[in-house]
Amino acid sequence: MSTNLTRTGERARKQPDLIFTSLYHHVTDLDNLRACYEALDGDKAVGVDGVTKEQYGRNLEENLQDLSDRLKRMGYRPQPRRRSYIPKPGSDKGRPLGISCFEDKIVELAVKRVLEAIYEEIFEDSSYGYRPDRSQHMCLDKLGRTIVQRRVNYLAEADIRGFFDNVAHKWMIKFLEHRIGDPRVIRLIKRMLRGGIMEDGLVRASEKGTPQGSILSPLLSNIYLHYALDLWFSHRVKKQCRGEAYYFRFADDFLACFQYRADAEHFKSSLSDRLEGFSLELATEKTRCIEFGRFAREDARKRGQKPKEFTFLGFTHYCGKTKRGYFKVKRRTSRKKFGQSIREFTEWAHRSRCVLRKGEMLRQAKIRVVGHLNYYAITDNSERCSSYIYHVTGILFKWLNRKSQRKTYTWEGYRHALAWVGWPKLYIRKDLNPCRSLKAL
């Protein structure tokens, strides 16, 4: 971040009511645009014009100067985003993405840096998604330690139906105008939001939503939910509760923890109206209040039931015990995510056997397994991670041996090949023990 943007962030923190009226020069600055070009990955998918980073960089200075000039005279207009789909559980078509052209990515990153300098200073601590120096593991760690070490007895789970597709542009602009008083920045963001989507050769105008896949989309979604949910919980819901209350959000996934059932039920009942006020819809079938905490297991057994579980950020959370018999939140890979990971690995191995050599297939398989373990190999999840390694090792053996009519490996030879490639071993990558000491929340 440049020195000027650092100063902007400091002013945003020290003056919570300050509206910034002069920001557009940061977006049009040639050095800033050049830095954004350097920061972009050249291997990402291309937009509707098919221009790659390498092609754009052949006349880099001329292209950036032309882009800066068009931005200064407000002559820049983003091109439609190319519609693409990635696999999504429960959907035949997949999750829709909007792929921007490379030049549009430069502008998106330049705008993101300006907005991030301001909003990172005012976002609530309860927000973890798509923010610098924050991750899913930090959110899970804070959640687990809060449940164990605070007076938490009930949880309210909720889900927003199609959040990214239903963001209202009018509300988005109103939220931005709370801190952004430069009309040129607002006008540029309006153009980005309404740039349209190209699918099957046809361009469809964007009346609402912020497309997933855009560089700017995660930050805009955080700004939207900051005003729609985060501030509402911290300044109204929490103050109206009789007992303790805590809230955690990662992008559009969120849940709240309460000391008393009445507070949890009130939050659940008022949530739908709150979201509808901002053109969002609550998925009622995925919204519920459950008893969860240090007394949940004992109370459930008295009723002849099992204690409730909940799923958040790919992990199923359940009531467990320490070696000394004290309450402890434990986690395991959710059944849905586990099955999805196995299916994705199987599909990859099936495709790769025809195009990759044995050594390269082994190396890429290792990268996939390491990526899975880096996320899921946390405290108390060894059993599911061990099961994952067992299954993918067998799947890889099967498809390596189907590269030709002759068997590629015996099991003994396969073990030597795994040792040669440095096949991942199971160990805990992230210590998320909720019984560690908890700093002041």
Annotation keywords:
alpha+beta, four-stranded mixed beta sheet, globular
Overview of this structure, please?
α3 packs across α6 and α14 runs antiparallel to α15 (358-376). This protein has 441 residues and is an alpha+beta fold. It starts with a helix and ends in a 20-residue tail after the last helix. β1 and β2 form a beta hairpin. Strands 2-1-4-5 form a four-stranded mixed beta sheet, with no helix packed on it. A four-stranded antiparallel beta sheet has the order 6-7-3-8, sandwiched between helices. It has a three-stranded antiparallel beta sheet with strand order 9-10-11, sandwiched between helices. The chain contains 17 helices and eleven strands.
Strand order of the largest sheet: 2-1-4-5
Strand content: 5-15%
What structural class should be given to the helix and strand makeup?
alpha+beta
> Biggest β-sheet: count, sense, barrel?
4 strands, mixed
Q: Give the strand tally.
A: 11
- N-to-C CA distance: 28 Å
Average pLDDT rating: 90
Radius of gyration: 25 Å
**Helical content band:** 40-55%
Helix count, per DSSP? Answer: 17
The low-pLDDT segments are none
**H/E element sequence:** HHHHHEEHHEHHHEEHEEHEHEEEHHHH
Give a short overview:
The chain is of the alpha+beta class and 441 residues long. The chain has 17 helices and eleven strands.
Write the layout of secondary structure elements.
Elements: H1 3-14, H2 24-28, H3 30-39, H4 53-56, H5 60-72, E1 81-88, E2 91-99, H6 102-119, H7 136-149, E3 154-159, H8 163-166, H9 169-176, H10 183-193, E4 197-199, E5 202-204, H11 217-240, E6 245-250, E7 253-258, H12 261-276, E8 288-291, H13 296-302, E9 310-312, E10 315-321, E11 327-333, H14 335-352, H15 358-376, H16 382-400, H17 411-421
Parallel strand pairs: 1-4
Antiparallel strand pairs: 1-2, 3-7, 3-8, 4-5, 6-7, 9-10, 10-11
Helix pairs in contact: 1-6, 3-6, 9-11, 11-12, 14-15, 14-16, 15-16
